[in-house]
């Protein structure tokens, strides 16, 4: 397997979480397989999550931590995002990172359009994996919520800026899993890391 440049972002805002555990499992396995890894934990980043302005003309300068995250996205060939699902969406700090860092002229170009009339993505040629935890049973998430957060991440965020395909791994019942369940999930994440998937 060819070596890949992989950027892993643990999007859980807490210092300790399943997302952090899985991020580290993924990185360890991918490094063992010979891939080039960079990892960032959202908890360690210092930035203002509030975009503030109503448009892009007066966007405030990116803090160094956000500049580094975006440079790592540009550097990567494969992006792995780990996140919990809270109230059907992303944690506020992770959403703030996306609001602040995924800007026109960097992540997409509003002056050029795709065949569908959407802004031109500027992070083309990259793939992504989302590893998501929640307490929502997968069948309920699929048939009742219709994979709303998956569709948002796959189409309206990552796909919008060029990450295709974006594959999703969902672990449900994440608030109080037993040791055996965490070990089983960790084996799945380790396998993803070994295959840079």
Automatic annotation (TrEMBL):
<feature type="domain" description="Flavodoxin-like fold">
    <location>
        <begin position="4"/>
        <end position="179"/>
    </location>
</feature>
<comment type="similarity">
    <text>Belongs to the NAD(P)H dehydrogenase (quinone) family.</text>
</comment>
<protein>
    <recommendedName>
        <fullName>Flavodoxin-like fold domain-containing protein</fullName>
    </recommendedName>
</protein>
<dbReference type="GO" id="GO:0003955">
    <property type="term" value="F:NAD(P)H dehydrogenase (quinone) activity"/>
</dbReference>
<dbReference type="Pfam" id="PF02525">
    <property type="entry name" value="Flavodoxin_2"/>
</dbReference>
<dbReference type="InterPro" id="IPR003680">
    <property type="entry name" value="Flavodoxin_fold"/>
</dbReference>
<dbReference type="InterPro" id="IPR029039">
    <property type="entry name" value="Flavoprotein-like_sf"/>
</dbReference>
<dbReference type="GO" id="GO:0005829">
    <property type="term" value="C:cytosol"/>
</dbReference>
<dbReference type="InterPro" id="IPR051545">
    <property type="entry name" value="NAD(P)H_dehydrogenase_qn"/>
</dbReference>
<keyword id="KW-0560">Oxidoreductase</keyword>
